[in-house]
Design the sequence.
């Protein structure tokens, strides 16, 4: 079997907030970004074409926070068409942002993207390891329901930010891990108690024992004592803590994108700092949804979930069936067993996370919903059932030329 | 390759920034969770007054820590209750053992008598 998979003992997922693929990685050539988009534009409300421009700023530019709730994302994807048989055209980003401030100049900023040199951490990792250029948000909607897909493989019929109930027999990936026979280890790390988790109604409220804090995650990396599965949440607020003044590093607009770069670099550097951790860990960095920001790849259809939302699909007038994906988001996989510059163009969404963890750790779990069952895996199972043509940890010998980051003091 | 220097963020920390819709949703979720906690764990913070990120963080911390504390306390209470439940059982067993011993002692003289009688008969 491939030594990368034989050695793999820990999978870490770091889920950031609200940035689209083109906005963050669109400047990288040859990966399906802006350069490859051709002549793409959105019309503003004066009917002038607005092209993507490399003018994104770290903070202060996307204020107010671009709307990314279900109706707004529908407008962004379908350009305002609501008829049956409508085609996604991604022509509604500028219109949607204009609706918030009625300011033509401000609305054009939704098309801005970062230059490669602006984001040395994310772009380096994307070009040095594996970048997924067709990883989409699970739902054309906001954070909470999209994050639910990462934990459960479904949002139980929600396309909004309200609390949801876990509907049996579906179980969270953490419950699947810790109740498996033999038991596996899993932790959900929030930054600190003042930032906490975005999965309160079920996990934090009922299973606080599966949670840890970010500093414990870093220690576990340093000491080679990571659980088999770790999910890391960023810091969602500027706040005071016992250890000092904290700055939000989730990259949610209008939080500083550079603070998020630092977080990603810190996670990577701590995993890499211990040779045993480094050799046995794969890190997935992924964004929960696009945050209302422009991307040029049309989200594909997908299999229906077993649930139907109470929010109506504008084209059918019926509840949304979860039969199409949200906007494309940045996603990359890091491991010293991945060859440099791998571009993965298969379709993924956040249901791929519990699907991958369940299959790789061989959990005896047959209750996954249709979306999770259909989701592709980003790490092949190592029990003979995996498709080794898709194995990303494919090197026979571990790389020794992986990048290092120097973090600011 | 040479190490890549990560720039120090130039962001101005601003806990007075207005809370986003995401943070307002988080408050809503924690508020629901707080309602399920015993009253002694409630934060006493009026959630409608939470406007800035700093406000939200104070509330989030208070409820998150309360959830952990409530579960930890409940686990301790369960352990105590289990210990108490076990204690009477041991007591009952002890009483039962004692009762058996008493019965044995009571029976033994009878046996001796019988034995004596048997012995007497033999003799």
Sequence:
């Amino acid at each position: 079997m491939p030594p990368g998979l034989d050695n793999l003992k820990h999978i870490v997922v770091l889920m950031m907030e609200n940035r689209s693929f083109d906005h963050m990685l669109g400047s990288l050539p040859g990966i399906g970004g802006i350069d490859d988009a051709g002549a793409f534009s959105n019309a503003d409300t004066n009917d002038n074409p607005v092209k993507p421009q490399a003018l994104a700023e770290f903070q202060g530019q996307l204020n107010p926070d671009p709307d990314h709730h279900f109706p707004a994302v529908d407008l962004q994807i379908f350009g305002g068409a609501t008829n049956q048989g409508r085609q996604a055209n991604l022509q509604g980003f500028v219109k949607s942002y204009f609706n918030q401030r009625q300011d033509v100049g401000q609305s054009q900023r939704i098309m801005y993207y970062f230059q490669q040199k602006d984001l040395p951490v994310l772009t380096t990792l994307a070009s040095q390891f594996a970048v997924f250029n067709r990883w989409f948000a699970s739902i054309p909607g906001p954070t909470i329901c999209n994050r639910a897909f990462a934990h459960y493989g479904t949002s139980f019929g929600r396309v909004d930010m309200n609390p949801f109930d876990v509907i049996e027999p579906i179980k969270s990936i953490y419950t699947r891990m810790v109740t498996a026979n033999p038991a596996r280890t899993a932790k959900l790390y929030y930054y600190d108690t003042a930032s906490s988790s975005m999965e309160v109604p079920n996990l934090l409220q009922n299973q606080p024992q599966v949670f840890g804090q970010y500093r414990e995650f870093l220690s576990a990396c340093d000491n080679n004592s990571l659980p088999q599965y770790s999910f890391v949440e960023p810091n969602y607020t500027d706040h005071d803590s016992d250890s000092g003044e904290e700055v939000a590093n989730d990259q949610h607009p209008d939080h500083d994108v550079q603070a998020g770069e630092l977080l990603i670099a810190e996670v990577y550097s701590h995993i890499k700092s211990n040779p045993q951790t480094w050799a046995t860990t794969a890190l997935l960095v992924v964004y929960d949804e696009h945050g209302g920001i422009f991307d040029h790849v049309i989200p594909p259809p997908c299999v229906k979930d077993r649930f139907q939302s109470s929010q109506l699909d504008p084209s059918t007038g019926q509840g949304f069936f979860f039969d199409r994906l949200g906007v494309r988001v940045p996603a990359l996989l890091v491991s010293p067993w991945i060859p440099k510059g791998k571009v993965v163009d298969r379709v993924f969404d956040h249901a791929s996370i519990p699907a991958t963890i369940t299959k790789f750790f061989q959990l005896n779990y047959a209750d996954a919903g249709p979306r999770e069952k259909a989701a592709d895996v980003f790490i092949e199972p190592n029990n003979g059932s995996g498709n080794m043509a898709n194995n990303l940890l494919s090197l026979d010998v571990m790389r020794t030329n992986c990048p290092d980051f120097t973090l600011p003091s | 390759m040479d190490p890549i220097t990560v720039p120090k963020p130039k962001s101005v920390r601003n806990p007075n920034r207005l809370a986003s819709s995401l943070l307002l949703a988080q408050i809503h979720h924690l508020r629901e969770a707080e309602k399920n906690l015993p009253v002694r764990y409630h934060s006493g913070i009026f959630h409608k007054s939470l406007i800035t990120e700093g406000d939200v963080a104070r509330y989030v911390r208070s409820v998150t820590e309360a959830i952990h504390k409530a579960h930890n306390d409940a686990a301790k209470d369960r352990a105590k209750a289990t210990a108490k439940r076990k204690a009477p059982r041991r007591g009952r067993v002890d009483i039962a053992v004692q009762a058996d011993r008493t019965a044995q002692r009571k029976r033994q003289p009878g046996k001796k008598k019988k034995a004596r009688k048997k012995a007497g008969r033999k003799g």
Notes: The radius of gyration of chain A is 20 Å. The CA atoms of residues 265 and 406 of chain A lie 9 Å apart. Chain A touches chain B through 52 residues (CB under 8 Å).
